[in-house]
Amino acid sequence: MANKPSDETTKPPAEPLIEPDRRRFIKLASCALGGGMGAAILVPALRVLGDPTNRTIVTTPSDPIDVGSLERLVVGAAPIKLDVVAPVIRDAWNASENVSLGAAWVQRQAGDKIVALSSICPHLGCAIGWSDKKGVFQCPCHESFFEPNGERTTGPSPRGMDPLPIEVVGGRLKLRWVTYRQGTAARTLV
């Protein structure tokens, strides 16, 4: 009897026929559910991170900015400094309201002829002031001086003050803010 093989060792164990299909379904269902949950989290996250791609992400005002009433300017008087405030500036994720862009020196020469000059020095970007005593513009950083029309008279500034486009619409001063490259004799928009 010891040499006779047992019937239990020669037959493979019996498995139910339904079990492999049930396991396969549970594996596929759990993979599909996990993949769906992962996609539900990953897709919005990638959209947020990739949203500003291939778009202009910083916007500055393209329309002229209202800087005040024409009545503030007296013909032939000294120029006055007007703050230039953008109503809205947007970047990739934020919108900021009432952002100060800088200042402009504005003078009324005759009738409705208005001249606007940037208060940013073309040399290194310091703030240019008006000297009532001398009747000229002066940059306090490096002693550049400019005539009332913006022409450079002395100092290290490579050019005169930069003009800003301005117009009168309905008795209001509308100024378009532009910036120029500093430190060069050529007036190049940035």
Descriptive report:
The longest helix is centred in the first third of the chain and has 32 residues, at about 20-50. The model has no long low-confidence stretch (mean pLDDT about 80). This protein has 2 helices and 10 strands. It is an alpha+beta fold and about 190 residues long. It has a 4-stranded antiparallel β-sheet, with no helix packed on it.
- First CA to last CA: what distance? 102 Å
Compressed to H and E, one letter per element, the order equals HHEEEEEEEEEE
Radius of gyration: 36 Å
Total helices: the number is: 2
Shape: elongated
User: What is the CATH superfamily label of the largest domain?
Assistant: Rieske [2Fe-2S] iron-sulphur domain
* Proportion in β-strands: 25-35%
CATH class of the largest domain: Mainly Beta
Structural class: alpha+beta
Stretches where pLDDT is under 50 for at least 5 consecutive residues are none
- SS elements, strand count: 10
Q: Please tell me the total number of domains.
A: 2
Report the biggest beta sheet as strand number plus sense, adding barrel if it closes.
4 strands, antiparallel
Examine the secondary-structure arrangement and name the CATH architecture of the largest domain: 3-layer Sandwich
CATH fold-level name of the largest domain: Rieske Iron-sulfur Protein
Strand order of the largest sheet: 5-6-7-8
What is the mean pLDDT? 81
